[in-house]
Specification:
Helix content is 67%, strand content 0%. It is an all-alpha fold. The protein has two domains: 89 residues, no CATH class; 33 residues, no CATH class. The radius of gyration is 18 Å and the shape is globular.
Length: 132
């Protein structure tokens, strides 16, 4: 098995090959005018490319293309970003409706609850207290 760093480099290399070449910026002024929104768009594009690579890996049967450690970091970061945006007032589902199976949801939710040392009962109580 390869190291997490080697696996991350391989995923990044594959994603870079799949990504379209960035357009050349017309002027230095335009490059300086980019804000955090530009950075977010870059992260969104990178996340979309990574999702495509991961989905392709599932289809090709390459389930180990991302190490467990890298997948854990990705899941944790996605959870934290979703929570932060939800607490900031945004309202959207963490995945598009009908984009994953009920089994995918149940397996992932069970794993997340186990990782946080929580039981389904505690989730139900929290939902009743918060209305979420």
């Amino acid at each position: 098995m390869s190291s997490p760093k080697r696996a991350a480099k391989a995923v990044a290399k594959t994603a870079a090959k799949a990504a379209p070449k960035p357009a050349r910026r017309p002027t230095v002024v335009a490059a300086a005018a980019q804000s955090s929104v530009g950075t977010a768009n870059g992260a969104s594009a990178e996340a979309t490319r990574l999702a495509t690579v991961l989905e392709r890996g599932i289809v090709d049967g390459k389930l180990d293309m991302v190490t467990a450690e890298a997948l854990q970091k990705l899941m944790a970061a996605a959870c934290r970003v979703y929570t932060a945006r939800t607490e900031a007032g945004e309202q959207f589902n963490p995945v598009p409706k009908n984009s994953i199976s009920a089994t995918d949801v149940m397996v992932t939710a069970s794993g997340l609850l186990r990782a946080a040392d929580l039981a389904v009962f505690e989730l139900g109580m929290w939902q009743s207290w918060t209305g979420r």
